[in-house]
Amino acid sequence: MLTLLMFETHFGEPGSSPFVVKAICLLNMSGQEWQGKITDPRKMPKAKLPVLKVDQTLIPDSENIRAYLEKQGADFDKGLTGEQRAASRAFIRMAEEHLYFHQVADRWLRDDVWEITRNTIFGMIPKLIRGVIANKIRKSLKAGLYTQGIGRFTETERAQRVALDLTAIKQQLGDKPFLFGDEPTAADASVCPMLSGIASIPLPTEVSNLIKNDPVLTNYIARMRAALYHLP
C-alpha cells in the first residue's frame, strides 16, 4: 500500500500544506489504496513534505507524486483536449507559484496571524523553546518571501494581485462544477488547495476575505472538499 508522508492537519485542512492536500486529492483521484503517516520533514529527501513512500522508495514533491501515479495508469486530465491540458498547466503554475506565496505571507508575516500559526503548527514543541525555533523559521520565510518578491508588497497590494487570479479562476469555472467540466482534474487538485488554504487563515486578511466572501469560490471549495478531501 502507498503511504503519504505528511504534516498534521491544521486550520480545518486535511494537511497544513496545500501541497499535501494536493497529493491527497491526486491519490484519491488515482483510485489507488493509500494511507497517511505524520512525519518530520527534516528527515525527508528534500526536507519538505509531502513524500510518497512506495515500498522502500521515497518520492518527494507533489509533482513527482503526480508523475508516479500517472506511470501507474492514472489520467488526471482524462477527456481534456490539448488546448485544455495546456490551460490546466498554466492554472497549476498560477496557483502553486503565485497564490501559494500569498497564503504563506498571510500565515507568517502578519503578527496577529503569526501568533496563532506559531501556537498551532509548533504546538508540539515545549513552550520554553517553541518561540526560539518558530521565530528562526519565520525569519527564514520572511527573507525568502522578500527575495521572491511578494514580501515587498503591502497586504492591499497583494490582494489586488490575487484578485486578478481569482477572476481568471471564476471565468474558467463558469457554470461548471470543476475547472474543466463535471469531474475534477489535475488543475483542481492544485488550485483548490491553494484557495482553501488561504480561506483557512485563522484571522481575516484582505486576501482571505476575497475568497471567503465570494460564493462562487466557496461553493467550488465545498464541492472539492466533498469529492476529494478524504483521508483513509
Largest sheet: 4 strands, mixed
Measured on Cα atoms, how large is the radius of gyration? 17 Å
- CATH A-level architecture of the largest domain: Up-down Bundle
Mean pLDDT: 95
**Helix run count:** 9
Please give the share of residues in helix: 55-70%
Separation, N- and C-terminal Cα atoms: 12 Å
CATH level 1 name of the largest domain: Mainly Alpha
Gross morphology is: globular
Cross-sheet strand order for the largest sheet: 2-1-3-4
Uncertain regions spanning at least 5 consecutive residues: none
Strand percentage lies at 5-15%
Give the H and E element order: EHEEEHHHHHHHH
Q: What name does CATH use for the topology of the largest domain?
A: Glutathione S-transferase Yfyf (Class Pi), Chain A, domain 2
Write down the domain tally: 2
Class computed from helices, strands and strand pairing: alpha+beta
Report the count of strand segments: 4
Structure in a nutshell:
By secondary structure, the chain is an alpha+beta fold. 59% of the residues lie in helices and 8% in strands.
